[in-house]
Amino acid sequence: MTLAFSGWHGAAVLAVFGLVMLGVGLAVSRGGNIRDSMSEYYLAGRGLGLLMLFFTLYATQYSGNTIVGYAPTAYRMGFGWIRSVTFMVLVMGGYLLFAPRLYVLAKRYNFLTPSDWLQKRFNSRAVTLVGTLLMLYGLGNYLLEQFVAIGQGVAGLTAGIVPYQVGVLFFIVIMLVYEWLGGMRAVAITDVLCGVVLLLGIFGLLIGSIITFGGLGVATEYMFANAPKLVAVPSREASTTWLSTLILIMIGAAVYPQAIQRIYSAKSERTLKQSLSRMAWMPFITTGVVLLIGLIGVKALPGLDKMASEQLVGMMANAVAAQGPVFYGLMLLLFAAVIGAIVSTADSVILTMSSMFSKDIYARHIAPSASEKQQVLWGKVAGIIVVFLLLLIAWNPPGTLYELFILKFEVLIQVAPAFIIGLYWKKLSRGPVLVGMLAGAILAGWMTIAGIRTWHGWHVGLVGLALNTVICVVGSYLFPAAATEQQEVEEMISL
Amino acid sequence: MRKVKEPIKNPLIWVGLIVIILLTVPWYLPASATRPVILGFPLWAALSGFFTIVLSAFLTWVLSAQWDIEEPLSDSKASSRGGDTR
Hints:
- Chain A has helices at about 10-25, 40-45, 50-60, 65-70, 70-75, 85-95, 100-110, 115-120, 125-155, 165-215, 215-225, 235-255, 255-265, 270-280, 280-285, 285-300, 305-310, 310-320, 325-365, 370-395, 400-410, 415-425, 430-450, 460-480, 485-495, and strands at about 455, 460.
- Chain A is an all-alpha fold and about 500 residues long.
- Chain A has a two-stranded antiparallel sheet.
- In chain A, strand 1 (about 455) and strand 2 form a beta hairpin.
- In chain A, helix 5 (about 70-75) packs across helix 16 and helix 9 packs across helix 10.
- The N and C termini of chain A lie far apart (about 50 Å).
- Chain B has about 90 residues and is mainly α.
- Chain B is about 50% helix and about 5% strand.
- Chain B is built from three helices and two strands.
- Chain B has a two-stranded antiparallel ribbon with strand order 1-2.
- In chain B, helix 1 packs antiparallel against helix 2 (about 45-65).
- The longest helix of chain B is centred in the middle third of the chain and has 23 residues, at about 45-65.
- The two termini of chain B are about 35 Å apart.
- At the A-B interface, helix 6, helix 7, helix 8, helix 11 and helix 12 of A face helix 1, strand 2 and helix 2 of B.
């Protein structure tokens, strides 16, 4: 993603953008007891209104990869990548599986982390711990990916004037400062800023690309003549993988712990419903626009191989910026948008990991009698330690972005049966849930390590999830919980 | 008494959702379904895009009209049943 033209201008834009984020984050961090109470710090006092909730859902769900990774995928896959619009819409369908009831229960029982629900429902330290570790593992990978992307983005935008490591450190320090002081409030307000810049940036690139290279119609005719695979109807097996991607992301992205915490943070059911309804339309103006950019790129920059195509957005932006000062400015904004999108995803993940260390590890297993203030403090410290451990790994960035994106779901999605079925079915019992989670994670992990990405077209994460679900359901029939326990669960999950 | 509406309890919603999802994937189209090109999209991709719009509209409807659980003033209930989960 090298933007050869920008150099010092790029560095200046990023410095200003970073400092504005810091300022906005600090502005909402003053006063009150933000840092003394777990729900104030991690959930903004369960008081996020429509604007903040919508933008934090938006900026958290769409990361930098949505631009710099998805456009090259469209370039290589062609029109089949229209699924990136569908799966982002479908995440709202994923929320419908559990959010309505979980929101009510979270308010009733003061849930702070996703694991709080597992603990309440199954009353088993083993289930909660395994669920927590699976989520932390998936989140760790996800955060690592964001760090790698920040560094590449900064180095690319400034044409190497700001080295990769300095770029990463600059934004990580900014994130950690506003998070330390303002928690979820600071994260949500910076998400508003990043969300707006993201939308402006991708529309700038779309308009610039159409003016520079021509519209989609021209690109499509070019594909018919020169790259017919990109416009061909997908085969039956490709359609199976397409469907598998939809289901994987529908469930996987909805049960992201940071997404679940945003459900907990909503001020009211009305606010939550309104935010999610708006989110159902955002893919068209986000991943949809990125799809068009990637497809226009097929004619604009033909014949790039897989590695070269990863640089597609940077190459297109270079050409657009050469059109004149307005476009030059828009392209600087685009790269601020990419960095902002990564930061707004990473800060949410850090905050969620920190809350899980605080509540699910420290308060539950290490110091049950600690005060809330101490819990918040230890959560923050653990978050910072993890960030720097991941940074050590990020200095040696692995492979391409999309592969990493698929990898993290395989583990994370295994908490879904416990999470979702547990909300509605009183018979679901802790033993089978524990075995199911472990079996699903081990199967999906093993297949991934063995180099198997799909099985008859289905992603291995879903294969693991299917095994997991079967174990949960069949096991709960074979080894049901005691009648009194089922009665308690029924009361607990009632509306 | 106010009627509680929870989307997952309404099987018709799930039938509708599954049908729309299946229509967004072009498994049912012949290999010749590439022309005409509609707004720059080959026919099969245009259909997928169209059903994705239908999907958004459907989900928006479910979110706004089929989800109604929390009573407008539920704070007293929430605090009376509150408690830590540890």
